Amino acid sequence: GGSCCFVYLTTTALAAQWGAPTTTTTTATTTATATATATATTTTATARASASAAGCHHPPQLRLPFSPYSPYSLSSTSPPRSRAALFSQRPATRGCLAYSSTRLVGTETAAAAAMATGGGGTGMCSSGGQKQKPLWREELERSIEKEKGKPASRFMTLATVKAGEPRARTVVFRGFMDDDDGGDVKLDGVLKIITDVRSEKMQEIKDNPKAEIMWYFLDTREQYRIRGTLDVITDKDSSEARQKWRSQQWEEISPGMKQSYEWPSPGQARTEENDDDKKDYLDPKPSVDVSPNFALIMMVPERVDVLKLRESPQKRHVHSKNGDGWTVQRINA
């Protein structure tokens, strides 16, 4: 994809709040407000010109629902120190997005090839030639970063279907596929999970690869529901590139996790004859080579529902895969 652009249309209220100083002198306050109004008008006009040059078309009336903590809402409780700081915290995105007071509309496609301001100024364009991440992933990575160091922040609930009934379990997020191989746009936002090929979920995925991940961040009170298709790589896969991904993931897990793939088959009943925990769980040595029981699961996202419970009012947006890009729509929380 090419460069991308966030067009921020700044309102008089925003300029007055974060741009003009507050004083006790009526004359000084009036002057500051007039200056803020002029600044906002000039900024808005420049933004519209940049947007037009970039191929973005917006409705006549727009405001900026933005806070340092979310690209979706305006927060007056924790404003950044300066407008420059505000803009520096905006997420990198694809294509053109138009923000309105009631909803977020637009597309995050890779087709936006030439933006007007090239990384600075009102247009807030990213530098050219860089592969941009989907907006939902920028938000997800921000949530992960805020709670890094807390093991629970890596745990997700993966739901599959068996004979028409739901099956859910906790799994560990192992990273994004394109962090390993960033040359393929089809790997954008693909999440990695690992499993034992002998587990029940393998048959469930074979019967129906559609699944959903529910990921909640306790401190930030943000929920991500990631719906998509599961793609499993086992030792039977004939693709050299896919086996390389599987091997790389094997090398990244701990010796204790590797040892678990030598345990008895998951889900089987324990009996008096085979109930020897030391023999079954403590004695086996982890395999040096990739265990034939080890599988890499790739969750290919198709729809991401982002809910921000800390916002007032709460904000919810749905991101939908559209070709090589994404569309995003605000919905009721």
Description:
With about 325 residues, the chain is α+β, with helices and mostly antiparallel strands. About 25% of the residues lie in helices and about 25% in strands. The chain is built from eight helices and eleven strands. Strand 7 and strand 8 form a beta hairpin. Helix 1 (about 10-20) packs across helix 2 (about 25-55).
Task: Itemize the secondary structure elements and their pairings.
Blueprint lengths: L4 E2 L5 H8 L6 H29 L28 H6 L7 E4 L4 E3 L28 H12 L8 E8 L2 E8 L18 E6 L3 H8 L2 E8 L4 E12 L6 H13 L2 H6 L16 H6 L11 E15 L6 E8 L2 E7 L2
Parallel strand pairs: 1-2
Antiparallel strand pairs: 2-3, 4-5, 4-7, 6-9, 7-8, 8-9, 9-10, 10-11
Estimate the mean pLDDT confidence: 72
Oligomer: single chain
Q: What does the overall shape look like?
A: globular
Residue fraction in strands: 15-25%
> So how many helices?
8
Order of helices and strands: EHHHEEHEEEHEEHHHEEE
Kindly state the percentage of residues in helix: 25-40%
**Mind summarizing the main beta sheet?**
8 strands, antiparallel
Structural class: alpha+beta
How far apart are the first and last residues' alpha carbons, in Å? Answer: 31 Å
For the secondary structure, the number of strands is: 11
Catalogue the unreliable spans. Answer: 1-30, 50-129
Radius of gyration: 24 Å
Q: Any key phrases for this structure?
A:
333 residues, alpha+beta, eight-stranded antiparallel β-sheet, three-stranded mixed β-sheet, 26% helix
State the gist of this model.
This protein has 333 residues and is α+β, with helices and mostly antiparallel strands. It contains 8 helices and 11 strands.
